[in-house]
Amino acid sequence: MSTESIVILGGSFAGLGAAHYAFKHVIPQLPKKDGVTYNVVMVNPSKDLYWRFAAPRACASKELMPTNKIFYPIEPAFKYAGTNFRFVQGTATHVDSAGQTVSVTTAGGEQQSILYAALVVATGFTTPSPLFTQTTDAAALESVYDVFQQSLKNAKTVVIGGGGPVGVETAGEIAELLNGKPGGWFASAPKTPKVKVTLVCGDKKLLPILREAISETAQQFLNKLGCDVVFNTKVVSATKAGEQEGAKTKVELSNGKTIEADIYIDATGMRPNTGFLPKEWLDNRNRLSCNPQTLRVEHSSATRIYAVGDVSSYARGGVMDMYEAVPVAMTNLKNDLISHISGKAHSGDRHYTANLKEQQVVPIGTQKGVGAFGGYRLPSMMVNFIKGKDYMIKQLAEGTMKGDAYTKDPKWTPVQQVGKAGLSSG
Ligand SMILES: Cc1cc2nc3c(=O)[nH]c(=O)nc-3n(C[C@H](O)[C@H](O)[C@H](O)COP(=O)(O)OP(=O)(O)OC[C@H]3O[C@@H](n4cnc5c(N)ncnc54)[C@H](O)[C@@H]3O)c2cc1C
Question: Does residue 127 have its Cβ closer than 6 Å to ligand 1?
Fold first, then answer.
């Protein structure tokens, strides 16, 4: 009896999607061979999915976003797969593509080597601030939030660096929590806010992927919550004067100004979790480089390796893209495996097409927000209804855990392969 494994690194939005897709549409179609079973092995540092969307509110207040709403256990979501699903709580440290093994350090400190027939890399990204990333387990992130919420109680000056959605949402949540909700629709910015909240934006407008008029509305909403926005300015350095309670952070800006902040939050972008992969597989932004249509890693040393989610070179960021990308990567994985196991000719590739429409939904505090969907501007009330109430936990969390987006597989047309760098047999 032998087992062929589809190994998935990462157990967040992309990894969960890939695993559900594997059970629903890949494993049932793999060639039946005497004495061979197929399984999915998922490696993830935490036993829980972290509902990252809600981080801007969860970091600010446990009352507004309780921790039991932001963590969802992974293993029970695959009960239906029985022993064909194996969860390893740990971190991948090395991929040996010649031996088709992944080295893993488990949460308990043990070293494991896991053999794969196909490998899905879904290790996402880390944020510079610990407020938006679950690095180990739920308890560790909860204690980061405890310390942060304690420090918010006495803060008089808060600086947030980064004018993207994470910076804007976090500024909105913190400004509303500390300065209160604005009086009414036509309320103006508070003349003397209790806490000075400043959002530092490197660009000439907030929210780079949205049109200017929407960015302006975001700025107005922030101003009404007592948050100033500084444009065309970057945070050059942020130096904390020690680790003691109440220690200030000196925030130096590219416009020559310096702010002595009680709290500084770095919301400037993402760092792909690719340190464990061979350097030659990465692109110039340190993402896992893959064919933008097949999502297969095409480096000559990579055999049956696929990139899904924000770790990969194809991704624009965000979860919506994955609903298209996961089926593509996993279908190509399936066809590559079938051809490899059966020795039959490859049945062709499935191709991914990026959705480049203006699309982003950004709550600003618990009452307002801005955004666009499918190229159409959304009114503030709609943003609040879709996302501002609970960061989409009610609509999406359960379905994400169950893999609802992958229950059905839409029709697609195979494209015959031209180059097959990723298909060498191994
Ligand atoms: C504050 C915030 C708010 C957001 N809000 C939205 C939103 O409203 N809508 C939206 O569409 N997107 C939003 N995003 C973006 C969204 O969170 C990402 O697109 C999504 O998390 C990417 O999913 P992923 O599975 O690719 O990677 P990640 O969510 O980054 O998950 C990667 C997983 O891999 C694990 N991992 C890392 N290294 C290893 C390793 N070596 N071995 C094994 N496992 C590893 C990580 O621990 C993690 O569990 C937000 C992001 C942030 C930071």
Answer: yes
Q: Classify domain 2-127+270-354+413-423 by CATH number.
A: 3.50.50.60
Specify the pairing of strand 85-96 against strand 36-44.
parallel
What average pLDDT does this structure show over 409-414?
91
Instruction: Judge if the beta carbon of residue 132 lies within 6 A of ligand 1.
Output: yes
Q: What distance in Å separates the CA atoms of residue 167 and residue 2, rounded to the nearest whole number?
A: 49
* CB of residue 400 inside a 6 A radius of ligand 1: no
CA of 12 to the centre of ligand 1 (A): 6
| Ligand 1 atom at minimal distance to the Cα of residue 14 | 25
DSSP, collapsed to helix, strand or coil, labels residue 378 as coil
pLDDT band of residue 192 (cuts 50, 70, 90) is: confident
The per-residue DSSP string of 387-401 comes to IITTTTIIIIIHHHH
Domain 131-266 falls under CATH 3.40.640.10: no
Q: Is the CB of 309 under 6 A from ligand 1?
A: yes
pLDDT tens digits for range 237-292: 999 999 888 899 999 999 999 999 999 999 998 999 999 999 999 999 999 999 99
Nearest-CA residue for ligand 1 atom 50 is 53
- The protein residue with its alpha carbon nearest to ligand 1, atom 8, reads 53
Averaged pLDDT for residues 197-203: 98
Whether the CB of 12 sits within 6 Å of ligand 1:
yes
Domain boundaries, the chain: 2-127+270-354+413-423, 131-266
Sign of CA dihedral 207, 208, 210, 213: positive
Question: What is the per-residue pLDDT for 372?
Answer: 98
* Closest ligand 1 atom number to CA of residue 361: 8
Tokens of 387: 């996302």
